[in-house]
Amino acid sequence: MTDMEIVAERGAWRSGFEERLLTAYRGVGCSEPVARALLERAVRGIDDWTLATDGTGWIAVGVGEDNGVTVGRIHDLTVAGPQGRAWAERWCAERGARRVQVRLTGGPGVFADYPVRGQNRMRVVAGRPELPPGLTVRRLREEEYPRWYAREEAAYIADIVRAGALTAREAKEKSDRDFAEHLPQGFLTPGHAFYAMEAGGLVVGTGWVNHGFLPGVTFGFSLEVHEEHRGKGYGRAAMAVGEWATRQGGDEALMFNVFGGNEVAMGLYDSTGFAVVDEFRSMDL
């Protein structure tokens, strides 16, 4: 590989980069409005990225703070062979990065050895989803919200730690920020709905969704079966509740995040047709 050169003019690269992202989003079933909304999210801050080329391909990188840690981000890499990744990692390390993150569409490529930290998955739901026999769904009551919140927060922190990207302290700090961002008015936050799933007179799980998260898309922040009721087939039932809630909110597709390290959930989502829209991987330097 010849020496990499930092370049200021990025028109040719950017048009190709954006078209590759759109093609990947369309390829997993995203409608055009959703694909473009995802693209808008993916290119936030793009003018601050550093762009380099060796004449055969491109590398786009940046650094930022994440939970008080300097993190490098490889936004794009089309230089063939391992040399391009090595240059990007070295560039990040020279600027104090202790970890490198990538956001991928279309498979891991040269980042296959980076551990998976999370995935966004999505699919169009049935036109008239039916709830499983024996399962009823009702809105969570406001007096149930504090207990729900405490349980949800603990599960979220545990998922982050299991994914391997953050320590328990960092995960708690991230949890506090994320809940404050997504639920600024708590139980009464507009666009958000909370559900209790009941079977045999018992609450076996809960759901939390955000309607209109993207055009025509409901985001399932949580479709949780309580630990004491797992292994009874309620996992698939929870997915059916998510589809039902999507249509209740007037949307047509359900999207959600799954953390790395949760192979059981990933297997369930594979079997129920939820495609990986984008995947997040990272490696400590």
Automatic annotation (TrEMBL):
Q: Which CDD domains match?
A: NAT_SF (cd04301)
Q: Which domain of life is it from?
A: Bacteria
Q: Which InterPro entries match?
A: Acyl_CoA_acyltransferase, GNAT_dom
What single Pfam family name could you report for this chain, choosing any that match?
Answer: Acetyltransf_1
**N-acetyltransferase domain mapped to chain residues:** 135-285
Q: What is this protein called?
A: N-acetyltransferase domain-containing protein
Source species: Streptomyces polychromogenes
